Amino acid sequence: MTLFYGSDEGLIKLKEILKLPFHDHDITVNVQRIGRHDLRPLLKDIKNQGESNFVVDCDVATFLHLLNQAQELSMVSHYYHYLFISMDLQMINLTSFQDSGVNITTFKLINPERNKKFNDLIENFKITTGEALVYDALLLYSKVLSNLSSFERDRPDKSDLDCNKFNNSSFPFGSLISGKMRKMVFEGLTGRVIIDKNGLRKDFYLSILELTREGLIKIGYWTPNTGVKIMRNLTQYYRNVIGSLRNKTLIVTTILEDPYVMLKQPNDGLEGNDKFEGYCVDLINEIAKVLKFNFTIRLVEDNTYGVKDKLTEKWSGIIGELINLKADLAVSGLTISHQREEVIDFTKPFMNLGISILYKKPVANAPDFFSFLTPLSFEVWIYMLATYIVVSFMLFVLARFSPYEWAKPTSCQRDPGVVVNEFTIMNSFWFTIGSLMQQGCETMPRANSTRILSGTWWFFALIMISSYTANLAAFLTVERMITPIENADDLSKQIEIRYGSVYGGSTMAFFRESKITTYERMWASMESAQPTVFVNSSKQGINLVKRASPKYAYLMESTSLEYTVQRECDLQQVGGLLDSKGYGIATPRNSPYRDPVSNAILKLQEEGVLHKLKDYWWKEKVEKKCPKEEKKDVANELTMKNVGGIFLLLVVGLIISLITVTFEFVWKTIQKAEQDRGSLCREFINQLKFAFNCKASKQKPPSNIKSTSNHCLNKLSSVEGLISNHTPSIKELNVYEKFSN
Ligand code: ASP
User: Fold this and answer.
1) Which of 237-246, 589-598, 615-624 has the lowest mean pLDDT?
2) At what angle do helices 680-692 and 640-676 cross, to 10 degrees?
3) CA of 271: how far to CAs of 263, 275, 298, in Å?
4) Residues 638, 376: contact at Cβ < 8 Å?
């Protein structure tokens, strides 16, 4: 704020104000001496600094001179506040400022309301505060004198009362009189007169006056005990503001952006507001109709919305113009943000939105040579391969352990003397692949354990093959349209696609101020990109997105994006909204118009006018509509999330078959041990040894061959039989070796 003083005495008074803790509130105080000279250069400087609060201590004539000069520089308006701390402002004529809306506040000590007997005096004579104080002083003196006893009254030496006569002697009754004055209490022209022990007035009453359209009006009072008490009637104040808006012409600053504010085409011969059209132009027209004001649209000089310079802390664009009071309202797609709200005021939002990504629609990909692999994800293919190996091997192992898997070979011979196991390692692998490919195989499981495993495997194969076939059909019929990015995170993790926003707007500020890692990374990339990724207007951004190379994604607000994709059929929105905010009409800080405009917006919203306007500019005013895209089912490769269950089922089948084979193995071994009347333990060891001996044959003697005491004999007889009845293969000879050992 600026303190104006007119005399040295005024500066002494202002000293008390300067002692206040302005620094704590970040307030800079500027002190200037004023007089009746040309104040315009000084005022111009102050205006350029964006100063609008003034405390003035000078005589009323100088204050009037200051107001006249300020008016020439448009510094007498709603945005300027003058606190006139010298009194007697009611003595001058302020009618020429009454309609300007300027905020002038002052004080009045003369208070006839408190003592009606002075009404006539005040009405007949225009009395200044100084005169009223002299009046009350004389009244006090006369009251004291009349209270003196006759003895005291007769004593004063008249010569001592001559003020012009200077001598060292003092008025002998001075202390007596001043003592009595301190005890005297009465209602004077300046309110109740009470003098404290230091001889100063105490407990006095100051009326607080404010300039309105009806003149200076009391809005409150101050007393040492109560402090400031404001009694302003807010409804009255609001009515006054609305009244002052009637037929007033407000300056509306804006920026060209489709569909908010656009130049009419063709533009020839159009002047003033007629040159413009768009959602915001219609909106301000509707608000002006409600509040009955006129307006002039002006385009912002630097063509930006407004962002704070980190070094100079100065605001650019529309925000800068409002701070410098170059406009009364800003009506555009101006985003309400916390940083902006600190320096200007916003009305209630008239539209809600968020930041999103504009990118080109993907074009159909040329069919892939290996597209048959696409129905299943790489991960699933690897799991399938691993499962195939594990199941085949387990089948081989189960078959070896399960005694029921050993059977007589199919030959014409009645009793070949050996049993064979068809599930060799190769056959096991062949069996599983055969069933997976739905071809089958000659080898078939006989034991319950191997059958359980095979059954589970067949079920697994059935599900996998059906899923693959179904998905393959979808993949081959649906054109694969792959968007390389699906959200902001994808964008931040790649370097092929450049991305940026409009320069000097809230979108840029959002990324600059964000503390979220993804957005921080995006800001670092945007800031360092060469050439710059920032554009001067949304049009430029949209054109960059449409260009084939280099690829560009444009970060813009969802409402503008929605408007764009309805007209540019090759563009689309990628991902959701990165934040949530609104557009509002902005006014300079503490503007009295903010509340009436906010109310008008709410009214229009409730009446459905805002909705109609949006529909008109977004949906109805479309020259060429984009063809409606059929919602195609997008085929997605199957991942473990889709088919994990069947893998789990297979594991369960495997476990059950393992338990079954254990039972089979134990059961048969017990049976054999009983049959042979041999040691169970030994039998176990023998059977296990055979099963674990990988080099062992696929054949073994049938389990009904007697063992233990007759063991070797039986073995030999069966082997002999084998040798005599059958031309032995190398493997059969191995069996012979095994048993003869
Ligand atoms: N509407 C925005 C603003 O107020 C412009 C943008 O940054 O996208 O700054």
Assistant:
1) 237-246
2) 140
3) 11, 6, 12
4) yes
Work out the widest C-alpha separation in the chain, in whole angstroms: 172
In the three-class reduction of DSSP (H, G, I as helix; E, B as strand; rest coil), residue 533 is classed as coil
pTM comes to: 0.65
One-letter amino acid of 343: V
Distance in angstroms (rounded) separating the CA atoms of residues 404 and 413: 20
Percent of the chain at pLDDT above 90? 47
Q: Determine the pLDDT at residue 622.
A: 82
Q: Residue 587 — very low, low, confident or very high, per pLDDT cuts 50/70/90? A: very high
**Ligand 1, CB cutoff 6 Å, lining residues:** 305, 333-335, 501-502, 505-508, 556-557
Q: How far is the CA of 329 from the centre of ligand 1 (A)?
A: 17
Rounded CA separation 108/218 (Å)? 9
Q: H or E segment at 185?
A: strand 185-188
Question: What is the rounded distance in angstroms from the CA atom of residue 604 to the CA atom of residue 391?
Answer: 71
Instruction: Indicate if the pLDDT at residue 159 is higher than 60.
Output: no
- Residues 332-364: tens digit of each pLDDT: 999 999 999 999 999 999 999 999 999 998 877
Domains and CATH numbers, the chain: 2-109+207-221 (3.40.50.2300), 116-158+168-194 (no CATH), 237-354 (3.40.190.10), 371-478+639-700 (no CATH), 710-740 (no CATH)
Phi, psi of 569 (to 5 degrees): -70, -15
502, 513, 537, 583: which to mutate for ligand 1, most atoms within 8 A of CB? Answer: 502
Q: What angle do CA 203, 205, 206 make, to 5 degrees?
A: 135
Q: Are 522 and 357 in contact (CB under 8 A)?
A: no
Q: Select from 335, 534, 556 the residue to mutate for testing ligand 1; criterion: most ligand atoms less than 8 Å from CB.
A: 335
Contact yes or no for 566/621 (Cβ under 8 A): no
- Residue count (the chain): 741
Inform me whether the pLDDT recorded for 693 exceeds 80.
Answer: no
What is the per-residue DSSP string for 632-655?
Answer: PPPP--B-HHHHHHHHHHHHHHHH
pLDDT at 158 over 90: no
pLDDT band at 269 (very low <50, low <70, confident <90, very high): confident
**pLDDT higher than 60, residue 679:** yes
CA pair distance 464, 458, nearest whole angstrom: 10
Residue 412 is predicted with a pLDDT of 64
Alpha carbon nearest to ligand 1 atom 9, residue: 505
3-state secondary structure (DSSP) of residue 360: strand
φ, ψ of residue 189 to 5 degrees: the values are -70, -25
Digit-coded pLDDT (tens) for 92-148 = 889 999 888 899 999 998 776 666 677 777 777 778 888 889 999 999 989 888 887
* Nearest-atom index, ligand 1, CA of 304: 9
Pairing type for strands 206-212 and 215-223 reads antiparallel
Best of 258, 305, 339, 513 for a ligand 1 pocket test (most atoms within 8 Å of beta carbon)? 305
Is residue 719 scored above 80 in pLDDT?
Answer: no
